[in-house]
Amino acid sequence: MYSKIVLEHFANPHNVGVIEDADGYARIRSSLHDDLIDLYIKVEDGHIADIKFRTFGCAAAIAASSMTADLVKGLSLEEAEQFSEEKVVAALGGLPENKVKCSVLAPEALRQALADYRRKHLTGSPQ
To answer: Of the CATH numbers 3.40.50.11740, 1.10.630.10, 3.90.1300.10, 3.90.1010.10, which one belongs to the domain with range 4-121?
Structure first.
């Protein structure tokens, strides 16, 4: 059902945790499966210097969060904003059709965390 890559990222997810002084943060919940992700980013010199997440959900949601964090760390903000769900699914070696929707949470949380960063740091607004 799941690729070896998905099972590895589910069993041993990378970048799990919280960034206490995060530059950007997002929390999203899936309306389909009640999966929940908190995603934190640290930005330095216009790049994602660090990314951490806490995902509560199925194997696909956790693996997709782990893979997203691996793939976007080090990217410029512009590159990170273009990051797609398709890249996650491909990097995971595919997902069962009924689990592809679980893979969209992490890229969506990333986009929201980037918007939060821009709102806080580029407009000077704390909210």
So the answer is: 3.90.1010.10
